[in-house]
Amino acid sequence: MDIDLIFKIAAIGIIVSILNQVLSRSGREEQATMTTLAGLVVVLMMITQKIADLFDLVKNLFGF
Amino acid sequence: MDLFVRTIVGVLIATVLYLALPKQVKELSVVLTIAVCCMVGGVAFSFLRPVFDFIDQLSAISNLSNPMIKTLIKAVGICLISEFASAICTDSGNAAMAKLIQFATTALLLSLTIPFLTQLIGIVENLLTEM
């Protein structure tokens, strides 16, 4: 099991949250939203491969 | 056994990290849940591989019809996957999507069983015409 991925996602979450706070306090709400979206897209790109791996495994195992 | 212990420790760490993620990035908490589910699901399914090999051996020994066993195994896989997906949807506060996933699963399982139902009806027809 790849624990690193979990740590990476948590770290990105914390960094995005800090950036969100900083940008919100300095009155840049749009940029804060964009930062949150960018973080979400990065994490989604990271886990897409994992989801594909899981579905491949299930396909092989259950004979779909 | 080592892999199992590592998986459990990983899930515990992920639970703590899930709680540590701030409220502003709730979406990332859901993504973290999906990632952990994918990884733990992969480990759990890999544990199941010898079981399915054993079932294949048993079906070969007992001359059971292979398509029937394959369909049963497929149904188990569909149920497990849909259970994961529906639990993730419920956790993220989207009960409607969870219900729809369950409905889609039920529909797919029904469509899988239609060939066997047709066979059964054929057998019953044959029995009735012979009588």
Q: What is the overall number of helices of chain A?
A: 2
**Mean pLDDT over the full residue set of chain B:** 89
Structural class of chain B: mainly alpha
Distance separating the two termini of chain A: 24 Å
Total helical segments of chain B: 4
- Largest sheet geometry of chain B: none
**Low-confidence sequence ranges of chain A:** none
Chain-averaged pLDDT of chain A: 89
In which range does the helix fraction of chain A lie? over 70%
| Count of extended strands of chain A | 0
What is the 3D shape of chain A? elongated
Termini separation of chain B (Å)?
Answer: 58 Å
Backbone shape of chain B = elongated
Radius of gyration of chain A: 16 Å
What does this structure look like?
The complex is a heterodimer of chains A (64) and B (131). Chain A is mainly α and 64 residues long. Helices cover 89% and strands 0% of the residues of chain A. Chain A has helices spanning 3-25, 29-62. The mean pLDDT of chain A is 89. Chain B has 131 residues and is mostly helical. Helices cover 89% and strands 0% of the residues of chain B. Chain B has helices spanning 2-20, 26-61, 66-91, 95-130. The longest helix of chain B has 36 residues, at 26-61. The mean pLDDT of chain B is 89. Chains A and B meet through α1 and α2 of A and α1, α2 and α3 of B.
Strands, helices and their partners?
The complex is a heterodimer of chains A (64) and B (131).
Chain A: H1 3-25, H2 29-62
Helix pairs in contact in A: 1-2
Chain B: H1 2-20, H2 26-61, H3 66-91, H4 95-130
